[in-house]
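Deliverable D2.4 — example input (structure tokens):
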């Protein structure tokens, strides 16, 4: 009987050791190493590509920043976005928001159209679908029209 008990313990010991070793390597050391390398090689991206305006962090280029005031461009509605936090909008969406921003701010529609067109990006170089990053567009609005946006900071 004793021989069987010792034999079971010797069978489980390597499996437990491999499990603990895997947990330490894959769950602790590897993520720590990746984090250190990312902070050294890509510090802005590793911190979430945060955007600062003056001394204040105003958002991230990769997450919807929740602009809700009518004086700003807005991200997609949650039903038209796979995740609900997409930071980009199609060119058509940006162009459709120009009249509302014009009405709320008094900024000429032509100037808003020029601003939108100067911030267009493409999914596949110049052949893909045109889109705009909402945060970059709104930062440009604030920078180009400080008199309009200074009261809303």
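Example output (designed residues):
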């Amino acid at each position: 009987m004793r021989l069987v008990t010792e034999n079971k313990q010797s069978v489980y010991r390597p499996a437990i050791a491999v499990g603990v070793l895997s947990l330490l390597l894959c769950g602790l050391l590897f993520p720590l190493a990746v984090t250190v390398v990312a902070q050294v090689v890509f510090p802005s991206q590793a911190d979430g590509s945060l955007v600062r305006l003056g001394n204040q962090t105003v958002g991230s280029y990769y997450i919807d920043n929740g602009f809700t005031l009518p004086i700003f461009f807005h991200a997609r509605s949650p039903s038209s976005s796979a995740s609900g936090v997409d930071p980009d909008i199609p060119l058509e969406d940006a162009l459709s928001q120009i009249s509302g921003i014009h009405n709320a701010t008094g900024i000429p529609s032509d100037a808003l159209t020029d601003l939108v067109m100067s911030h267009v990006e493409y999914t596949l170089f110049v052949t893909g679908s045109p889109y705009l990053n909402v945060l970059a567009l709104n930062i440009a609005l604030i920078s180009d029209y400080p008199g309009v946006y200074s009261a809303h900071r």
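Residues 2-41 form the longest helix (40 residues).
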